Amino acid sequence: MTRTRTRTQQTAAPVIDRGDAHAVFMTYWHVAGQEQGRAVLDEIADAWEGASRPADVLSFSCYLSTGSDDFTAMTYAQCAHPDGYRPFIRALPAQAARMEPVEYRLHRSVPLAPETGPAASVVIASFDVDGRERQEHIVSSVTENIEKSPRTDQRGLIASHFHLSTDGTRVINFAEWTSDEEHIAFLEGATRHRSLRLATHTPGVRPIGFTRYHLYRAIGS
Questions:
Q1: pLDDT value of residue 20
Q2: 147: enclosing H helix or E strand
Q3: Distance CA 220, CA 203 (A)
Q4: Residues of the chain with pLDDT under 70
Q5: Interatomic CA distance for residues 52 and 48, integer angstroms
Q6: Residue 52's pLDDT is what?
Q7: CA–CA distance, 166 with 104 (Å, rounded to integer)
Q8: Quick one: which of 89, 82, 80, 35 has its CA closest to 58?
Q9: Residue 221: predicted pLDDT
Q10: Three state DSSP letters for 166-195
Q11: What stretch of H or E contains 110?
């Protein structure tokens, strides 16, 4: 079912652990730089703004990476039900908007400082894994490390949200930070190195790396 909405551009970050979001779709584009990334995301978001989208699509957020040489544009869509998302994007007029997404489920969230407000920086850490059991195992190991580590080792981390791909091949940690600088400081700390060792030494799990993003555009319900 579709319904027509009055659309206004929003800059509010999505609530990752909202209770009515039961499916997540993520898509990435490698771009030549920030200017091309903004152009790609504007084309996609404008196509969304001009279309009547399924009522089950709750939010759609566009992000640009902060890197200086390997730029990525990313979209993150939350849905109450997954069935209508792919047919909707395949009918959009912008070719970039029709790229096949990866479907995820939010598996576990670890809120550390939700009272600090919306994230200024988002870090996506990715893991290649061998099936559902390995997905759940590495999430359990990393979240235990986060929860047991001193808060001073993770200053600026608002929350970590672990997503499992529905095909059993990926784990995504969608981490919300108060600033880029706090995440950069975290990279040198003991908590991050323990998590990296856990992933590296766990059979059937291969850490891919991380990318830091800023929210660019957002479309809400």
A1: 96
A2: helix 132-148
A3: 39
A4: 1-11, 68, 221
A5: 8
A6: 92
A7: 5
A8: 80
A9: 58
A10: CCCCEEEEEEEECCHHHHHHHCCCHHHHHH
A11: strand 102-111
- In this structure, the number of other CB atoms found within 10 A of the CB of residue 33 comes to 12
Task: Name the nearest CA neighbour of 14 among 135, 128, 106.
Answer: 106
pLDDT, position 106: 98
pLDDT of amino acid 65: 97
Output the pLDDT for position 70: 80
Residue 110 structure tokens: 């670890």
Measured between its terminal Cα atoms, the distance across the chain in Å is 15
Helix or strand (DSSP H, E) at 136 = helix 132-148
| Angstrom distance (rounded) from CA 130 to CA 115 | 36
Q: What is the pTM of this model?
A: 0.92
Q: Which helix (H) or strand (E) holds 138?
A: helix 132-148
Question: pLDDT value at position 11?
Answer: 61
Q: Which residue has the tokens 């319900």?
A: 221
